[in-house]
Amino acid sequence: MNKGLTLRNVCILRGQSPLIEVDYNISEGEVLTVMGPSGVGKSTLLAFITGTLPSGFKGMGQVLLDGEDITSRPPHQRHIGILFQDDLLFPHMSVGANLAFGMPAGGTMTARRAKIDTALADVGLSGYSDRDPATLSGGQKARVALVRMLLSNPSALLLDEAFSRLDAELRAQVRDLVFRVAKERKLPVLMVTHDGEDAKAAGGKIIELESLTKN
Ligand SMILES: Nc1ncnc2c1ncn2[C@@H]1O[C@H](COP(=O)(O)OP(=O)(O)OP(=O)(O)O)[C@@H](O)[C@H]1O
Q: Where is the ABC transporter domain (predicted)?
């Protein structure tokens, strides 16, 4: 079985026109960086992988995860984690409630709570479970968003400009944490970024998406 994330003969149309065509294979623990001009279709590609293409777009080809074709599965059954530049924590919920939200069902309340506490401790946020997200710094929010994504137990990780709101020092810290966790868990990572430093830090292959449409 081919472990990792594979995009096989993927073509995304906007209306009738081809927007992007890609063929990628990202092995476990490997990071593929996708760059390219604004509007070329990078976020649209991630939406195709997560099964959330907006109306007006059509995707063809296959998304394979660990050899399984997940192309026609609904988003919540794909086991793909995604981090955006906006952390999108629910403001009316505590950090702990935010984290519980994406966790697979099952287990006792105590076991779930222990899992959350351990995951927070792993990113240096011990004791933050009852905090209101509004009281966290940008870096702390980014770490909570990372933990929430990891608690959903994804088999692949997508990053959409995930670090771009953080200042340089925090950016490097959170980025290194994400890459370290991805390596430990052997997750294939597809990272979209405009930032050369992100691409360098990822240490993997870099692909420049080119526009197929003439504007
Ligand atoms: N929900 C939507 N409905 C219609 N068109 C959209 C939608 N989202 C994006 N587009 C258009 O699709 C094209 C690709 O957008 P996309 O966001 O994938 O580009 P991108 O490469 O991620 O850009 P950026 O680097 O600026 O984030 C753009 O022309 C954009 O205007």
A: 2-215
